[in-house]
Predict the structure of DNA-binding protein.
Amino acid sequence: MTAQNPERKIGDPAMNPGDEPYFAAAKEGRLLIKRCNSCGQPHHYPRQLCPFCWSSDVVWSDASGDGEIYTYSVTRRGAGAPYCIAYVALDEGPVVMTNIVDVDLDTVKIGQRVKAVFKTSANGTSIPMFTPSS
């Protein structure tokens, strides 16, 4: 049984102009993605232009916070180890790079259903991460 390092510090995110609504929603326990009004495609990480059609007509949209692990890696050595980094395919479509938390790391597997949880960084910013659904 491998548990996460409880002393691992969560780094502060790099804030880009326009990211404020994303992190404000995370503080409320909501996961936001952007959706393009021109082509209808959802995307993450939120940006000012749609990565599919380059339209600037993009809006914030609530995501369910549910998804499945597409791939992952458990780091067992180094500062803050052990911890798990994963790509999670959200039910809405986008794939997000994230951490898998609050789980025995030896039980993490591809295809596992996960849900968003929100952890606090050193400066108090809520960061979306994921934990197994069941």
User: Anything to note?
Assistant: The helical segments are 20-27. Residues 14 and 125 are 11 Å apart (CA to CA). The chain has one domain: 20-132. The chain has a mean pLDDT of 92.
